[in-house]
Amino acid sequence: xxxxxxxxxxxxxxxxxxxxxxxxxxxxxxxxxxxxxxxxxxxxxxxxxxxxxxxxxxxxxxxxxxxxxxxxxxxxxxxxxxxxxxxxxxxxxxxxxxxxxxxxxxxxxxxxxxxxxxxxxxxxxxxxxxxxxxxxxxxxxxxxxxxxxxxxxxxxxxxxxxxxxxxxxxxxxxxxxxxxxxxxxxxxxxxxxxxxxxxxxxxxxxxxxxxxxxxxxxxxxxxxxxxxxxxxxxxxxxxxxxxxxxxxxxxxxxxxxxxxxxxxxxxxxxxxxxxxxxxxxxxxxxxxxxxxxxxxxxxxxxxxxxxxxxxxxxxxxxxxxxxxxxxxxxxxxxxxxxxxxxxxxxxxxxxxxxxxxxxxxxxxxxxxxxxxxxxxxxxxxxxxxxxxxxxxxxxxxxxxxxxxxxxxxxxxxxxxxxxxxxxxxxxxxxxxxxxxxxxxxxxxxxxxxxxxxxxxxxxxxxxxxxxxxxxxxxxxxxxxxxxxxxxxxxxxxxxxxxxxxxxxxxxxxxxxxxxxxxxxxxxxxxxxxxxxxxxxxxxxxxxxxxxxxxxxxxxxxxxxxxxxxxxxxxxxxxxxxxxxxxxxxxxxxxxxxxxxxxxxxxxxxxxxxxxxxxxxxxxxxxxxxxxxxxxxxxxxxxxxxxxxxxxxxxxxxxxxxxxxxxxxxxxxxxxxxxxxxxxxxxxxxxxxxxxxxxxxxxxxxxxxxxxxxxxxxxxxxxxxxxxxxxxxxxxxxx
Length: 734
Description:
The record marks 103 as: Essential for stabilizing binding to COTL1. Residues 2-118 form the PLAT domain. This is Polyunsaturated fatty acid 5-lipoxygenase. The chain has 23 helices and 16 strands. By secondary structure, it is α+β, with helices and mostly antiparallel strands. It has 2 domains: 3-114, PLAT/LH2 domain (Lipoxygenase-1, Sandwich), CATH 2.60.60; 155-667, Lipoxygenase-1, Domain 5 (Lipoxygenase-1, domain 5). Strands 2, 3, 4, 6 and 9 form a 5-stranded antiparallel sheet that branches. Strands 12-13-14-15-16 form a 5-stranded antiparallel sheet. Helix 7 (345-386) packs across helix 11 (432-440), helix 7 (345-386) crosses helix 17 and helix 14 packs antiparallel against helix 21.
C-alpha cells in the first residue's frame, strides 16, 4: 500500500505547542485518504519548536496531492496550536510543501494548499476554485471594516485586541500593553519618581538633565548640547524624526509678511529676499494644520496651548539650512510678530521652541499615526479580505502586515482613545489629535506616498542643492531596492499586462483600499483599478515602503530627537508670546512641560523607539510562504541590494557626530508593529516542555500557575536587559 511521509513543524513562540489530538487527511486528484491521527507512542507530539514526522499509509494511490486537511480536537482543555508548515513526501519521492503559519484554535480545522503561488486563472479544478472562494468568504466575515472616527480611514471592526482573529493577535498580549510598557520604561529610565508630579515645574534647563543624564546616547546627548543653535534647528527638518514637512519656497505667502529689512542680516549672497527665493535658497515649513485645533483640556489644573507657526529657512553658503523668520500664528497682525535671529536671545529661542513643539504634534499624529500606522492597517485589512493565502501578492505582502492590525487596535484601546495615555502629556490629547487626522486626510494622496514623487513635488530632490538630506538619499535607495524586488516577483507570475487586468482578486484588493481606506475620495489619487505591471510594481512598492521604511524613518528617531524635552515639548503651558522683548528664561521654563508630563513623554518616546524582541528586518522572511526557486532567487537578490545600501550608509556615517541610520535596511523592520515588548527571551527556547505545564495558553493563567512558587512579583522582563527575572527564577524552581 502507498505510504506518505508527513512532516509537521510547530511554531517556536511561547505556547505554540499543543496536547490536543491532531488528525490529517490527504486529498488528491484520484481520491481522498482516511482521517489519520498523528500520534507516536510514548512521545510528546507537537511541542513548541518541534518538527515531527509520521508515516501515513493509504489503500490506493491518491494521485497528485491538492489539499491537506488538519483537524484539532480537544484532549483535556482547549489548547491552541501554531502550525508553521507541513511537508509531504509522496510514494514516488516528490516533496510537497504546505505553508500554514497560523493558529489553529478550539476544535477547528484548516485546509491547506501546497506552497506554489497561484493566480485565480491558474486554478482549473473545481475543488481548488471552491477552496479559494471559501477562504475569502471566511476571511471577509472575520475582517470587517469599521469607522472609528468620522473622516478617518476605516479600521478593523474590533473594540479590543482580544476580539481580533487569533492569527493577527500578538503572541503575548501583555507584552504589548502600552500602560505597562510606558510605566516600566519610566522605571527603567529612573524617572518614575517624577511621573506623578504634574503642575510641578522644572527650575531651569539644567534641571531637565535630572531625567536625562543616565539615558543619554550619541545623538540625544548631542541634541542636548546643541539644541539652541540655529544649525541644529534647521538640520532636524532634513534628518530628524519628522523630515517630511520642509519644502522649497517658490513664493513668500501673504500671511507671512516678511520684508527684506527683517532678514537682510541672515542672507549671505548679497541678494534680495525675492532673488534668494528665485534661486531656490528659501524653504518653508507651515503648521497650518494646527490652526483652530483644540488644546488638551483633560486636566483642569493645567491649561495647555497650541500654535500654528510658519517657519522660513535659508540655505546658507555652506549649504546648511537655518531659520531666518518665525511667525507663531497664521494671521499676521501686531499681536503676531515675526521673530528673527536678530531679536533678543530668549525671544528667538522661545519662538524656535514653539516650532519644535508644533513639529512634535504633526509628527506624532499625522506623519507617524496617520501616514504609516492607519494607512498600513488599511492595506492589511484589504489584503486579508481579498487575497487568499495562495495568491502571490498575499505571500509578498503578509510579512509587511505582521501585527499591524494588532498594534493599532491596542493603540485605540489604550493610547489614543478617550482618556488614553496620549492625553497624559500631549497638548493635542483630549480630541485635538482626532481633529488633526480629520484635517490631514485631504493631503493623504497616493502621490504623497510615492517617495521619489513626493520629494520632487516639495522641490527637495536636488542632491547638489541640498547635499545633507540623508532621509531623501537613503529613502530613494531603499525605494528602488523594494521596487526592483516587486518587479521581479510580478514578472514571475504576471506574464503580461492582460494578466494583471484579469486578476479579479488583485482588483478587489485595490478597490477595497480605495473605497474603504481612502473613503472613495477621488482627489486622493488612489487607483480604483490597476491595468499594467508597471503600475502594479509602483503600487506594491508604496505598500511595502510605507509599512517598513517610511515607518522606520519617522519612528525610531523619537528618543534621539525628542528625549531632550526643550527640543520637542509635547505640550506648552503658557500661550505664545504676542510681543517682543518680554521673554525671560523663567517664562520659557514655565512654558515647558511640568515634571510629570515630561516623564510620561520620555517613557513614551523611549518605548516607541525600541525594536521588538526577535525583530524581523527588511529582507528577512523566516516564514517561507513562497516555495518556488525563482522567487527565492529574487529574495536573495533583494537582500544583496539591501546589504549594499547598508554598507554605503555605514561608510558615510563613519566619524559623523550626527550619523543618519534610520533608513539603513538592517534597522528597518518589515512592518509598523515595533514597540518595546516585555517578553521572555529565546535563551530559554530549550524549555519546550514549559508549555505542557500550563493550565491554558493565556498569560493570566500562566501567571496564576507561577504565583504559588513565589516569584511573580519579580516579573520585570525588559527588552534590552541581560536577564529575564521571571524565567531565571522559573528555571531555578524547576
